[in-house]
Design a protein that fits this description.
Radius of gyration: 15 Å
Order of helices and strands: EHEEEHHEHHEE
Helix content: 25-40%
Number of helices: 5
Strand content: 15-25%
Number of strands: 7
Distance between the termini: 31 Å
């Protein structure tokens, strides 16, 4: 659980990464083997876990061709969930919630590469989407799909697995802190 910080509550709902900044994506050749995953078919199933709902929402988006800004993206294969990637996402969402900020760089200077490598996940390509303020999975996925760089991460055919996290801190300015991590295992 993140430590609460005391900042006046400010009701802001912001688009993912604000200011038009795209999601980040990187390639590498280090790490160890990834863990397995799970899938769900309905992102609105109240009995489904966060992971199942997020995976269903993303896979539903990936199943349909779409325009990501000026780039046409064809349908792509479904992703599977990975708990190491979820751990990297949780680390970053917790950091953003505790520090009340949104960035791809952690408060300690950590990068996506640092966070994924800390889990020992063996990857050849990774990407990250961050957002703050959205109050539901559908809202945050829609915000990402309406942002060219984030949409391209979601629709990237190279990615095979994902993990994501939401950390709430209602003492912070944004209340909700989201991170989504994509990867292609090595």
């Amino acid at each position: 659980m993140p430590t609460k910080i005391f900042v006046p509550i400010l009701a802001l709902l912001l688009s993912a990464c604000g200011g038009g900044e795209g999601g980040s994506s990187q390639s590498n050749q280090t790490g160890t083997q990834p863990s397995g995953g799970s899938q769900a078919s309905d992102p609105n199933d109240p009995q489904a876990t966060f992971a199942e709902q997020m995976l269903a929402a993303v896979n539903s988006a990936r199943a349909t061709s779409r325009q990501c800004g000026s780039t046409y993206m064809p349908p792509v294969n479904a992703l599977t969930w990975d708990y190491d990637l979820e751990s990297a996402a949780f680390r970053h969402s917790s950091d953003m919630a505790n520090g009340d900020f949104m960035s791809h760089t952690g408060s300690d200077g950590s990068t996506l590469t640092d966070r994924v490598n800390a889990t020992n996940y063996a990857w050849s390509r990774i990407g990250e989407n961050v957002a703050v303020g959205q109050t539901s999975i559908n809202a945050v996925v829609n915000a990402w799909l309406n942002s060219e760089g984030h949409c391209m991460n979601i629709m990237n055919a190279d990615f095979e697995q994902m993990g994501a996290s939401l950390v709430e801190n209602h003492s912070g300015a944004y209340g909700y802190y989201w991170t989504q991590v994509f990867a292609k295992p090595r």
